[in-house]
Amino acid sequence: MSIVVRDVREHELDSVLALNNAAGPAILPLDANRLQYFFERAEYFRVAERDGSLAGFLVGMGDASGHDSSNFRWFQERHSEFFYIDRIVVASRRRGGGVGRAFYADAQSYAELRYPCMACEVLLQGGTDPVMLFHGTFGFSEVGQHVMPETGLRASMLMKPLCSYEWVRDTYGRELPQEPWIHTPRTQQVARSRAAGGRA
């Protein structure tokens, strides 16, 4: 069956929370309040469906979002424009089946119209080689390391340049074509917030 990537729906948040907290030590745990924060503020919050069930999710924020993560602030102190992947989770039974690559392809399609690079981190603890390899083969490279004050965990800070962004910016500026694949209800809400001077 094919993988469908789409915006999360509010009634799915309990299932998303369960996926996150079953992911193991490579993903920081969440509670319902934190997940609601992502639902209300994340610029990109999408789930993957496979065979009619949730196979994973990805949460992303733009550099102007005011996100309160120490890893996000690390990037913000060093880079002016970026799209930050806060977390990507794939259900254990779906790992190795292309869900992660489908997410990153979808997130890049979103980000390269709006940002010059993507940023994320990988926690450096036992068993991270497959995760680092995955990111490396998708074009990310380490730009530093950061010890998270809230957990004491060390993270490899990764970035990937998005070569299409400059052409999109020079051709369209901030007025992207009104195409459904570009403007989902979530991205329209973010655009309205930015136009009103609020945070995404």
TrEMBL record:
Domain of life (superkingdom): Bacteria
InterPro entries reported for this sequence: Acyl_CoA_acyltransferase, GNAT_dom, UCP028520
N-acetyltransferase domain segment(s): 3-164
Protein name in the entry: N-acetyltransferase domain-containing protein
Organism for this UniProt entry: Cognatilysobacter xinjiangensis
